[in-house]
Predict the 3D structure of the following.
Amino acid sequence: MASVLRAVSTAMPRGVSTAEAARSTGLARPTVHRLLAALTAEGFCDHDHKAGLWLLGPEMYLMGVVAAERYDITEIARDHVAALAEATGESAFLSVRRGEETVCLLRQDGAFPIRSFVLYEGKRFPLGVASAGLAILSFLPEKTMERYVEGHDLASGHGSEHGQGLLRLRIAETRERGWAVNPGLVVEGSWGMGAAVFDTAGQPAWALSLTGIESRFSTDRRPELGRLLLHHAHELSKQLRGEHAFPVG
């Protein structure tokens, strides 16, 4: 049932058809329909009969509000995301690790008029795909990182550049610099950079990132963007630990 609910969540805000949910989960279509109907009866899903699509229901909203008191850092992070967008002119984001994926929680567009829409609120990527997921994966404990890389064939779904050898190279580069770079590997011409944000246990649980067109991420400019990302990621991590942080801006 959890995989079916995740399929609905991933398809928001459009919603998902029964057939799409079946393909996503690998379950038989009648089984998926039965599970979706049961979730709808309990308020966890809604069914748009006219469009034939399933969406998240009101019970999910109520549960999310309760869970947010413990897990949601968006209000604390919002100033950092806004400051990154203002300072760089690019689109800035906060993403969170959820198991083996990242989920975008916040987006703030900068002043530069040409934007990339690869990442948006609610968008999910596997760890290691896109700059936020690469930043988080790179700073996981060594055994955890290795187990993930060995156990996932990212190349089959996201292109040969996500093969294990090249992924390990990008992880090593990210560890050396402190910040991750996605050189147009998700969508050609759309670049991204990210830095991990650490929880109170010292684990990379979130990431701040920037995206934009390739010309805005030149070799000369990347170090400047990296320093800004690391500054805000470090200050946000300190805030989450209850330590004094410099004013955002």
In short: Residues 222-240 form the longest helix (19 residues). Residues 73 and 196 are 14 Å apart (CA to CA). The two ends are 44 Å apart (CA to CA).
